[in-house]
Design a protein that fits this description.
With about 220 residues, the chain is of the alpha/beta class. It has one domain: 3-Layer(aba) Sandwich (Rossmann fold). It contains six helices and nine strands, in the order H-E-H-E-H-E-E-H-E-E-E-H-H-E-E. A hairpin with a 2-residue loop joins strand 8 and strand 9. It starts with 11 loop residues before the first helix and ends with a strand.
């Protein structure tokens, strides 16, 4: 498994409560905005094998039409198909084209994945692939300008230039810092970063009064 769970961190319990509430709002916004129907083919890109954290795979837990839901991940998540009675699981490879045809899905959902795919060029490619395989797209990512960085639990430090943030994280967090200081594991985005990639609508979800999560959308029509 990829080392992003922080099970032993004393702040994980607090993060889980905050994160789950935010993800419930994300799910409600997805249903209101995308208006999925039972017949729609849906892809959830970036599911996790984690079974301990409440917020993990919240979409599979909440989506009302699981038999029309395909899931994909760079990790082995085949077991989720039987657990949630889903349509199928497909493994994709990091940095490569998604193993689906053009507009194979009516809607693509991806939560908190794009910040883990690499540099800005990698992130732009990820969004391009999302838009290629689905008619509508709903992608979320933590807002870089939310005061607390929820992977390292360090406040405000991530507002510094990325290189400085990475150097300090290595010093403060030790072995875990080496992981999170790697651009391939964490590269936070702001609304302006996404707008530079072009052609997509950007909204947000608030937590504790702050814009905590960015919502990147492509709508049909």
């Amino acid at each position: 498994m990829i080392n992003y769970y922080s099970y032993n961190n004393p702040l994980t319990r607090i993060r889980t409560k905050v994160s789950y509430k935010a993800r419930c709002r994300i799910f409600n916004l997805f249903m209101e905005t995308m208006k999925p129907e039972k017949s729609n083919k849906i892809l959830d890109l970036g599911v996790t094998p984690d079974q301990k954290l409440t917020e993990s795979n919240f979409f599979e837990k909440m989506y009302p039409y699981p038999d029309s839901l395909t899931i994909a991940s760079v990790e082995d998540c085949e077991f989720l198909v039987s657990k949630y009675k889903l349509k199928s699981f497909v493994k994709n490879n990091p940095g490569e084209r998604l193993p689906f045809s053009d507009e194979e899905f009516d809607i693509l959902f991806s939560n908190a994945v794009i910040e883990h795919v690499g540099d800005r060029a990698d992130q732009k490619f990820f969004l391009k692939e999302c838009c290629r395989v689905a008619k509508q797209v709903f992608v979320t990512t933590p807002n870089r300008y939310f005061p607390i960085e929820m992977h390292t639990f360090i406040p405000l430090l991530h507002w510094l230039p990325r290189g400085i943030f990475q150097k300090i994280v290595k010093i403060i967090k030790g072995k875990d810092g080496e992981f999170w200081a790697n651009t391939n594991h964490l590269n936070l985005l702001s609304k302006s970063d996404i707008m530079k990639m072009g052609g997509l609508e950007v909204g947000f979800i608030r937590t504790l009064g702050f814009k905590s999560n960015l919502i990147i959308m492509k709508k049909s029509g």
